[in-house]
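QA checklist item 7 of 12: single-chain prediction sanity check.
[x] sequence parsed
[x] length recorded as 209
[x] structure emitted
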Amino acid sequence: MKVLNKIFDNNKKWAEKIKKTDPEFFSKLSKQQNPEYLWIGCSDSRVPASEIVGMMPGEIFVHRNIANVVVHTDLNCLSVIQYAVDVLKVKHIIICGHYGCGGIKASLDNQEHGLIDNWLRNIKDIYRYHQGKIDALEDENEKVNLLCELNVIEQAANICHTTIVQSAWKSGQELAVHGWIYSIEDGILKDLNVRVTNKDDISQTHRIK
């Protein structure tokens, strides 16, 4: 219980610190949220979305899961995207992975991990698509990190292929999808040069008329 009490103590200190800076902060925050960003990231405890980009509560809408995967049968993730796009009217969707991701490592080791193996199948498919390029690397860490990057690129494409995002583009809504990756070792974000702003930037196969 002492550990949990420490969490509550830390919460009080945090809230007081915010109120000293802006006494009306929580009052204003409670009335509405108006973020411009949806962040889809990994559940890894070392990658806290708001903190690594220096944003305050209310500035970024967040969804996290193991290995930052966007699957078209995942109603949880799709519901978050729809709410962010249709209701909050975010202008940017950021899919952010991180180097050394445990989920990515597990997808490469051919070991049985239990229920999560079904989730990791999505990443194994990405490995299969790029197996020649990944296997050409000798260093295991480099293999993992390359797959971390390729996974971000693939998930960014999956976001763009949703009817949610394409409908927003069709209606003229300002919306960009970005692919980034984070290094836990130095705390720095890297832009993977993935930025999609309309359906003309995605494959013909996935475009919705």
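[x] summary fact logged: The longest strand covers residues 188-196.
[ ] second reviewer sign-off
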